[in-house]
Amino acid sequence: MSRYIVRRLLQAIVTLFVLSLLLFAWLRSLPGGPVSALLGERSTPEDRAALEQALGLDQPIFIQYLRFLERAAQGQFGVSTGVLPGRDALEIFLSRFPATIELSFFALTLAILLGIPLGYLAARHRGTFLDTGSVLFSLVGIAVPVFFLAFALKYVFAIQLGVLPPSGRQSVGINATHITGMYVLDGLLTREWDAAWDALRHLILPAVALSSIPFAVILRITRASVLEVLDEDYVRTAQAKGLRAATIRGRHVLRNALIPVVTTIGLQTGALLAGAVLTERVFTFRGVGHALAYGFETRDYAVLQVLIMMAALIYILVNMVVDIAYAAIDPRVRVR
Amino acid sequence: MPNRKLVAVAGALALAVGLSACAESQRTPTTSAPQGTTGATAARSDSGNANADATFIFGAAGAPKLFDPFYASDGETFRVTRQIYEQLLDFLPGEAKTGPGLAESYEGSEDGLTWTFKIREGVTFHDGTDLDAAAVCANFDRWYNQTGAAQSSAVTYYWNNNFGGFADQTDKDSLFESCTADGMTATVKVTRVTSKFPDILAHGAYAIQSPTAHEKYDANNVQAQGSGFTYPAYALEHPTGTGAFTFGGYDDAAGEVTLNRNEDYWGTKAGVAKMVIRTIPDESTRRQELQAGTIHGYDLPNPVDWKALEDGGAKVEIRPAFNILYVGLNATKNEALKDVRVRQALSYAINRDQLVQSQLPEGAEAASQFFPKAVSGYNTSLQPYPHDPEKAKALLAEAGHSDLTLEFWQPTEVTRPYMPDPASIYEAIRSDWEAVGVTINPVAKPWTGGYLDGTEQGEAPAFLLGWTGDYDSADNFIGTFFTKQDNAFATKNYPFAQELTDALVAADSEPDAAKRDQMVSDLNKKIAEEYLPGLPISHSPPAIVVAAGVNGLVTSPLAAEDFSTVTITE
Amino acid sequence: MTDSPRRPMPGTPSHKKARLDALASTAAPSGSSGGSAGGGVATAVSDAGRVASGEGVSLWMSAWRRLRRDWVFLFGAAIVVLFIVLAVVAPLIAPHDPATRVLIDQVNRQTNPVPGPQPGHPLGADYQGRDVLSRLMVGARQTLLVGVLATLGGLLGGMTLGTLAGAFGGWVDSVVMRVVDVLLSIPSLLMAFSIAAMFRSPSQWTVILAIAIVQVPVFARLLRGSMLAQRHSDHVLAARALGVRKGPIVFRHMLPNAMGPVIVQATLVLATAIIDAAALSFLGLGNPDDRSPEWGQMLGNAQPYFDSHPHLAVYPALCIIVVALGFTLVGESLRESLDPKSRR
């Protein structure tokens, strides 16, 4: 087992290393650059040349990469030029990450709370209206562009009805203490109920918008998985043995059916991150996705590098944990 | 396929505004949200029991980069620093002309090389340091003595461009010579006469800052690191000026700058106790926040929304246009453009009036020259090129280019105050040109991803670009465009290149303002009629909007508003 | 990235789950980001992959027999057929040229930014005075083009990589799959976003390329999986025993058998591609030239008018939703009908 984990870790490191190299080369091959972003129509070729020299951008790309690695080894991942000039890119990621975590957490929770019961019910009542209806509903959910859904939600609930705030993470004037950077949690920890409620109200719309895809995926996986398990021999055996339906459902069907569902949930992290780019933009929710979009706009190499690498790292880690968990369950997976 | 019923949703908007306004008034307990948006008439009257403890929340399109304006070059940073700092000179309220600021009075010597500034008495910096001539000269010396990374024009853009160099750069021709302090009188010597000086000192970049705080927080410590610059604590956390607001802090996670009223301000104290500037990049979100009552004002409302905003009781203040949108032409890659008749034909082909009416906001005007009316030296006798497709065709035929093919560049991922919707403006001009038989090769480039450097390097035969002026100075417009012969316009391709450069330099170094204006005015006529290195298109006024109940805002054509005059009526 | 079991272990029930996971992990990032047919893909791939290993023509026949009676399929197919017909004939029947600014004289940024419905223009015009109905109709063609070309691009790239890896195994497999893993380690929309941002000059083709490239690793993994599954299957072993060379085995025996899952996946990717194109436009990375309209682009560009003139966004959005749903329904029912397990 430990050998397997070591192997997986090594693979992850290699993957990340290759990715960092590709990313580095790619970002620097982008036309334009930070000077254009900084000075707009005021930039001149002289400014550009001077800046490139000052920052060593005129060096061959592999030398730049080596310098980058050297600094990275010392824990410096570069300084932002656009998102928050002068700040360490990793610091920016860390300050924005809690917002995205909070948003993703709520979106995922919502997706799970709705997706699993609905998926289970759909499978139990296969072929009925409930089944077709919920599957169709989830398919429509997938077919609606996330940003359009976000706009529509905002239009109805923030503009038409005015019951929820249209953007941001907290109202101005809420003087909340922030411990974790996750505002709802902070409000609860400090017992500033007003702040928690305010933060929660800001979270609802973006979380609903972001949950649409994971919800649909979870519903469909749950349904498929429950159907599959219902057909397994041990369930039939249990039924034949005359076990009570509730026992079968709880002990055999649900438990076994949920394993792939849990996997799927783990794998939704990547999707959530990508969806966050769109959702955070629509709701001016200042998380990682927001910083990423702005990073592109300002050609902020350091921030883009760190954000994309961190996204990949998280994604890889989650996948690894899932795989290792599997290997623990099923030794054959370890066979190469 | 489309469902017609859904259009009905659109009609419900007006209702929605009212609804949300009602729902809002009970929502934000902690701040002084404007009370509903219904009492438009009542709010408009300035009589009011202005609430001196109010918080003014303003929605900005972008985040400030840092808080030391000397290291800044973007409008969002200056918007914040203008509230914290003041300059020796200042813009007159609502104008682009300069007047006294921290200098009560100032005058130049006969030869225009020595300037004496009489410093205002009784002014202190936010950290308690007294303002005197020594503090002013400390600022000049600091500017001039920047070293290392700070000399990059990515850091000190304005100094580089206005003053031309630093103390240890012997190869560069610096405008600044020396500053000597004597009590409350500062004497500044410059090396040559230019129309820029001293007017440029009103620009936000030349804010007078506390020398004590500079020392305490290591203000000059700018370092190049990796692919960026690191800034000292002073610029990030401890900006110290003399302005009507003190710096309260910047919360990046919330995207909010907080400013507090300077209770020891030497002039009229700010009308609100606190000002919060929230970064909301998306234009429609800014509008929604205003309509929801969660902000009191925002910059650059989309002209499409002006009417709905006013119907909802908000006040849309239209600033005078202080910009120019032009089509740049560059003959380097298209020989045909070397013929002035071709350039004229392209100008006649453009239906400026239709473009202005259909794509630009109210108050926008077709342009006849490369800077707006508000700038001294504007030639009032010039008219914009009329829309005359026949003449355009005739000129093209005469030049032997009836089959002209032109590569026309379009910027993406950007909007500017002079160019609210680049795609639509591009499409309009492209259609007009095609209508006179020109074949257009469309090329689209991302603004920061190749458009700006491509045009600068002369790769674009025809392109959309513009400029927003820094202050009332013709040189700031046409001098920037045409003095150099090897930039986006590449005037080196034309026989008049040197003539134009010489004329611009001569006008800029003319000490007599009236004479200078006449020179510039004549030059404008020549540029528009004989030279035509580019085609002026339009000037469009950027607007700013405040909610009902917000009074006293004086708009600035330079978007350099001083928010200390703002009051909020409960 | 995930390390799926390198060699499928046939049959055992617990393997099914491991494999579902492996394949889901392959497919999940493909679609689920930014509003695409993610979940469908996950299950589709896993189940369809299994089909490929065997049965051949009779399977397709029985699938068709069942599809004929499946209203979900028929409904989806009706949408798809209608869409394709519209895409073909639209330029002939559209009342106006979609690029001509017919109502430009009515457009005024303040008072009338978007001319409303009027005789001859049942849906009104857009912010440049162009007839919205005509743009929607003609937009079907461009939308179909983007969807089909992006899918084909992804398929071609994926097929090349997947075939290389699956057919040869060994170090080729290792290298290719490592590249695929690296590509898969970035969430797909982020990747599409990044690729689209890379091009010097955005156009319709950069949008298509960006979406296609994102699909390459998905198809690669899918094909490799099904190749691997077949390497030890009877018909391949038989062909090898008969002395058939590697190339012909791959192209004549293995590839055709992998077509089932590929078709299913392609149908689902088509829906994804159309939605992703819209997301790119929304982020300002779409095709800047909107003379030949595309729904995603129309939706993305309608962003500033969403509150004041929502119909500009709602029409193309509805078109996208309906068509994406159509393709997804077809793909899903195809998958189910090809899956021997769901035959009950």
From TrEMBL, chain A:
Localisation per UniProt entry: Cell membrane
CDD domains according to UniProt? TM_PBP2 (cd06261)
Q: Which GO CC annotations does the UniProt entry carry?
A: plasma membrane
Q: How does it sit in the membrane?
A: Multi-pass membrane protein
Query: Taxonomically, which superkingdom?
Result: Bacteria
Q: Where exactly are the transmembrane stretches of this chain?
A: 103-123, 135-157, 199-219, 257-278, 302-329
Q: Where is the ABC transmembrane type-1 domain?
A: 97-326
Q: What is its main location?
A: membrane
For this entry, list what GO says about its biological process: transmembrane transport
Keyword entries, A-Z = Cell membrane, Membrane, Transmembrane, Transmembrane helix, Transport
User: Quick check: keyword Aminoacyl-tRNA synthetase in the entry?
Assistant: no
InterPro entries for the chain: BPD_transp_1_N, MetI-like, MetI-like_sf
Of which family is this protein a member?
Belongs to the binding-protein-dependent transport system permease family.
Tell me the protein's name.
ABC transporter permease
Automatic annotation (TrEMBL), chain B:
UniProt-listed InterPro entries: Peptide/Ni-bd, SBP_5, SBP_5_dom
Where is the secretion signal located?
1-23
Q: Which residues cross the membrane?
A: none
Q: Which UniProt keywords apply?
A: Signal, Transport
Which biological process annotations from GO are given for this protein? peptide transport
What GO molecular function annotations does the UniProt record carry, in alphabetical order?
peptide transmembrane transporter activity
Q: Where is the Solute-binding protein family domain?
A: 99-487
Residue segments, region Disordered = 24-47
GO cellular component annotations of the record: ATP-binding cassette (ABC) transporter complex; periplasmic space
* Family, per entry: Belongs to the bacterial solute-binding protein 5 family.
Q: Which PANTHER family match?
A: OLIGOPEPTIDE-BINDING PROTEIN APPA (PTHR30290:SF9), PERIPLASMIC BINDING COMPONENT OF ABC TRANSPORTER (PTHR30290)
Protein's recorded name: ABC transporter substrate-binding protein
